[in-house]
Amino acid sequence: MEVRIRLQRAGKAAKSRYNYRIVAMSRNKGRDSRNLEILGHYDAARKPAVIGIDYDKLQKWLDNGASMSDTVRTLVKKSKKAADQSA
């Protein structure tokens, strides 16, 4: 089974205030299908956007051969950069 780390939409549709979960999911499943594990969250509606990632779980899936979507890869880079600036 090929595993992909990608976004899963969650939250309310009112005024396009969706938030997203960063999840590990089988590559051939649909966007709103059942995920294997939740790895973090992303809320673009807040200013500035809120990104929370469990790096231990993320690394576990990457070590097991999962691949990240382009969007998740960008979010991980932004999250690490923000963590480095605040530390």
What descriptors fit this protein?
S16 Ribosomal Protein, Chain: A; 5-stranded mixed β-sheet; 87 residues; alpha+beta
Structural shape? flat
Average pLDDT level? 87
Strand residue percentage: 35-45%
Oligomer: single chain
By CATH, the topology is S16 Ribosomal Protein, Chain: A
Q: Tell me, what is the CATH class?
A: Alpha Beta
The CATH architecture classification is: 2-Layer Sandwich
Determine the N-to-C terminus distance.
Answer: 38 Å
Rg, Å, rounded: 13 Å
Estimate percent helicity.
Answer: 25-40%
Q: What is the tally of beta strands? A: 5
Report low-confidence residues grouped into runs of 5 or more. Answer: none
The biggest sheet, with number of strands, parallel, antiparallel or mixed sense and barrel status, is: 5 strands, mixed
State the fourth-level CATH superfamily.
Ribosomal protein S16
The domain tally reads 1
Counted by DSSP, the helix tally is 2
Write the element-wise H/E pattern from the N-terminal end onward.
EEEEHEH
